[in-house]
Amino acid sequence: MINHSKARAYTNIALIKYWGKRDESLILPMNSSLSMTLDRYFTETEVSVDPILSNDQILIDQNTIDVISHHNLVRFLNLIREMSGNPYFAKVESINRVPTAAGFASSASGYAALALAASSAYGLKLTPKELSILARRGSGSASRSIFGGFVLWHRGQLINGEDSYSESLIDEVYEWPIEVISAVVSTDKKSISSRMGMKQTVETSPLYKGWLESVDSDIMRAIHAIKAKDFTSLGEVVEHNALKMHATMMSAWPSVIYFTSGTLEIINLVQRMRQEGIEAYFTIDAGPNVKILCQKSDTGKVKNALIQLSAVQSVEICSLGKGASLIE
Ligand code: DP6
Questions:
Q1: Prior bond to 254 cis, omega within 30?
Q2: CB-CB contact of 286 with 190 (8 Å)
Q3: CB 107 less than 6 A from any atom of ligand 1
């Protein structure tokens, strides 16, 4: 008998970043992080566990992928087979509605959707916390995409990772009109993966200690600001946290620099807009594209200013999105 399950999960943007692992194989972070799940971009993944198959078959965006070069995906499925005691191979069909051109990575939504669809197809009944731990084993940020709204990923202390999971802080129905504008300056594949970039930073940056010492207070301040709906306070800590993360990676050796001239142009624009009274704050992940946090009443103005810059190729607007769910 073939067992099918299909799931959808949305991308998230870290407001307080995850940067650095204390265990590479279990994907255990050096610090806790806090994110906002977004409502526009998602991955849908269908998993069919089939006793007839002699190998896993994986299709991403309708293309069959070579399972040898994508051994991480097979390793992830092996983990689920081990947990479930069901040895059969599976066909995995995944569609990313996360266009590269939108400037978001698809690993968070991808592994969150795969964790839910595969665990269900293999007959595992996981709690949201267990699902978040499982998704984390695929990609750290995926542990956050299990939940909607504002999400906190606990660093945890245990060496087996069982206390390193995400939880919902405030769900997506929270009435607070904040939006995220994604401004894309490049869709080229990044020269250094976030996985490598964080490793290099942890091993060589003299500033990394300072980063770790400041993250927890950034998280406290962000949680307080979200609960109090204090946009200024949230924006300030979000922007400062992203800059601190980039400063630590720039001070690694060899240095890890994701900024381009277009990134800097947007940073300057956002800071200039603030001086002119339009409240907007930026955050930047492991790439050159910029996400701008603003209040809905200002989104139009901020978007218009961004598209005037020749470096900006496209802009997309997102708000709070839902957690991962089974579909059909
Ligand atoms: C800068 O979750 O993609 O976006 O755990 O190695 O798969 P792996 O890394 P990933 O890294 C995300 C880094 C970041 C910050 C964040 O999302 O918190």
A1: yes
A2: yes
A3: yes
Residue carrying the six token digits 């690694």 = 252
- Boundary of a domain, candidates 126, 144, 175: 175
Q: Which residues contact 220 (CB under 8 A, 6 or more apart)?
A: none
Angle at 248 between CA 245 and CA 252, to 5 degrees: 140
Alpha carbons 33 and 152: distance in angstroms, whole number: 6
Q: Which of 194, 195, 282, 290 for a ligand 1 pocket mutation test, highest count of atoms within 8 Å of Cβ? A: 194
**162-206 pLDDT per residue, tens:** 999 999 999 989 999 999 999 999 988 888 999 999 999 999 999
Which residue's alpha carbon is at the smallest distance from atom 5 of ligand 1? Answer: 140
| Last residue in a domain, options 154, 175, 196 | 175
Regarding the beta carbon of 140 and ligand 1, being less than 6 Å apart is answered yes
Measured by CA distance, the residue closest to atom 12 of ligand 1 is 141
Question: How does pLDDT run across 121-139, given as a tens digit for each residue?
Answer: 999 999 999 999 999 999 9
Whichever domain contains 143, its CATH number is 3.30.230.10
> What secondary structure does DSSP assign to 68-84, as a single string?
TTTHHHHHHHHHHHHHH
Give the SS3 label for residue 258: coil
Rounded CA-CA distance 54/61 in Å is: 22
Residues 6+ apart with CB under 8 A from 108: 9, 11, 12, 139, 141, 142, 144, 145
Closest ligand 1 atom number to CA of residue 33: 18
Q: What is the CATH number of the domain that holds 277?
A: 3.30.70.890
Asked if residue 18 has its Cβ within 6 Å of ligand 1, the reply is yes
